[in-house]
Every structure is written in structure tokens, then in C-alpha cells.
Amino acid sequence: MRDLSKNYPDDLDAATLFAESLMDLIPWSYWTPEGQPKPETVEVIAALEEDGLPYMEPPYWYQPVRELLGTSFLKLNQPGEAEAVYKEDLQKYPGNGWSLYGLAESLRMQGKTEAAQKVQQQFDQAWSKADISMTPFKS
User: Which superkingdom (predicted)?
Assistant: First the structure.
């Protein structure tokens, strides 16, 4: 169902079927014992909410879900999965500083030093005029 949803990104029925199938894999178990959403939970939200909502100001959804999903993967020490999520987000939103930051971290965690340095340079450029500073990732 994930592939179906990816093959038809504008089809809300495909997104809904994917989200439901993912929820069926973890029925009523969407949160960790610490009260954090599981990566699958955030992925369900991304499939149903973020991609299905039209652009507007102010936005319907304030927190980009892919960034939360990527961070969840980093905290779970799954940098390869995080890398894929951040790259997908950057295809939709090139130059997104939050995703560039996460991508650089996921690459560093995998020992892909040269690629991480290139992405870090992209992040530095994207973030050069930001009014907040980024703190180092802590798992």
C-alpha cells in the first residue's frame, strides 16, 4: 500500500488505504511507553494530513510531519530510514533547512562523511539568514 500511495501521490484514497494498512499493523499501539509517537504513527499522520492538505496561510498543520518522522528514526538509531524520509521531503521542498539538517545528521550517523559535509554546506547556506540557531541532535 505504501508503493500504491507513492505511485499515486495525489490520490487521497490511495493515501487513506496506505494509512489504514499501516495502522492495522500496529493496532492501538501508536505510542511508545515514554509517550512518544512511534515512527509508524507519524507516517500515518504524514499520509493523511500533511500531503492531503492544501497550501494556505496560516497552515492547517504547523509541524511538518516528515521532519518528525525523520527525527523519530534518528532517535531510534535508524539513520538509513531517516535519510530516506529527509530526501523525500527535500524532493517536495528543496532547500528546507530542517530536512537538510536531519539529512546531514543521518548521513554522519551512517559514516557517509563526504555526503554529510556536502549536505551540511547546503544547510549552512539555507540557514544563513534564519532567526534561530540549530542545536546539535541528541538521541
Answer: Bacteria
